[in-house]
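Because discrete structure vocabularies remain unfamiliar, it helps to consider an illustrative case, giving the amino acid sequence and backbone structure tokens:
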Amino acid sequence: MATTILALAAVSCAALLSTVVYAAPTPVGTDESPSALALQALHNYAICAVKRTPAGAEKMLSLDPNSQDFKRSRARFGKGHAMCEKRGDVLRSSPMLFAGSVAEALIIKYPVGALGSAAARKDIQPRNMVEGVGMCVAAQEPTKVSAVFATEPGSDAERVALNSTASLLPGCVPPGKTIKLNRPAARAIYALGAYRLLAGNPEHLEG
């Protein structure tokens, strides 16, 4: 059975207790649990950068966030958008949180309700397990996932929106696999999954 380790803060659904192990939140300010201020700074940075160079953001997200190609692309993207960085630690965030913030900023360009239509697509290949989990949740509950993106990162509203999707996560993790998620990570994988459903396969994966 797949195990999902969550730190989504006060999830109350009793049905989850047999399949989900809740991890204690890590200290505020770390990559695993950034402060709300740091999360908002990253969110605002991504919106600014994507507005300036949407094609560059799309190209970066065609790469696996765990790859060296993504690391190099992220460095180039960051250098090209220094004017968008209000805090010195934005580009030191984890690759997944950075990629998720950029994906969320790209989702803004799609019409309201587009994720609901994209959810029915069966031809999309996730680039990795994490993206596959995000696609799975977004495809099942596009409205609830969209509601997450309508909240401020690190806010109580975000917590409520994420908790409404928590029951789907165990069924979206492949058998025998374990992933550890806190609130920022859950939001990031939802953004990556939703963006992949909307944007389709990267060109190098098509055909």
Remarks:
- Confidence is low (pLDDT under 50) at residues 3-32.
- The two ends are 33 Å apart (CA to CA).
